[in-house]
Amino acid sequence: MLAPKFDADGLVTCVATDATSGDLLMVAHMNAEALKRTVETGEAWYFSRSRKALWRKGESSGHGQRVVEMRVDCDQDAVWIKVEQQGPGACHTGRRSCFYRVVPLRQQGAVALQFRDAEKTFNPADTYGNSG
Amino acid sequence: MLAPKFDADGLVTCVATDATSGDLLMVAHMNAEALKRTVETGEAWYFSRSRKALWRKGESSGHGQRVVEMRVDCDQDAVWIKVEQQGPGACHTGRRSCFYRVVPLRQQGAVALQFRDAEKTFNPADTYGNSG
Question: ipTM score of the complex?
């Protein structure tokens, strides 16, 4: 049975990948209510740690996520959703994926990130307006 | 620059996918030292929340992970590593991936999980011995 192991803050980690390309889109969190709504509706709901609020992905941007498949890991503290990303992207910076920077490996000291697949697919100012 | 945003426990989330198939293998955590060692060596190091210990993936199982590419997300509280998984699998239950159970969607109440891609690829008792 589904018996999520929520952390001290009442959250599990959620990994969202693109159901078509397989690319990692974003990593976020779900509390019990977000998980329940996602299971019941097949639309991705999350819990924002910064805003301390439940949110349906796309409620302000219009870029919702239809869940094609959900999986849970061995110890049930993480879920994986394969989604149909609606609209041009998942990231609030205006990109398809939140993971648009590479960390170069096998080096020491300060690490300069490298942009990769970082083209903007939408203008966040237009999408989110003044609410950021 | 790489400037990870560690949580209150000093951790970032790490998502490991198979560099060849793209499949999600596991979700774990890294503290500053684990992240530093992963960047420097190109081998996956994690921090176990349950054991409160740094560990190199494969140090007890032999099933290490060579990192092909590392990325960081927009707010730098999650990293994504694409890995060459050594040996038959990443999951301590004896499977290739930790995500071997599907959560059926669009239903209410108690949810029965469904096994998917759940065949055992190794015997954990043989691999980990009495240490579990």
Answer: 0.94
Q: What part of A 43-62 touches B (C-beta under 8 Å)?
A: none
Q: Rounded to whole angstroms, how far apart are CA atoms B72 and B64?
A: 21
Is the separation of the CB atoms in B88 and B108 below 8 Å?
A: no
Amino acid occupying residue A88: P
CB contact B33 to A (< 8 Å): no
Burial (Cβ within 10 Å: 0-12, 13-18, ≥19) of residue A40: middle
Indicate the burial class of B132 (C-beta count within 10 angstroms; 0-12, 13-18, 19 or more). Answer: exposed
- Kindly give the pairing relationship between strand B53-56 and strand A101-103: unpaired
Q: How many CB atoms lie within 10 A of CB A129?
A: 9
pLDDT tens, position by position, A18-77:
999 999 999 999 999 999 999 999 999 999 999 999 999 999 999 999 999 999 999 999
How big is the A-B interface in CB pairs under 8 Å?
123
pTM of structure: 0.95
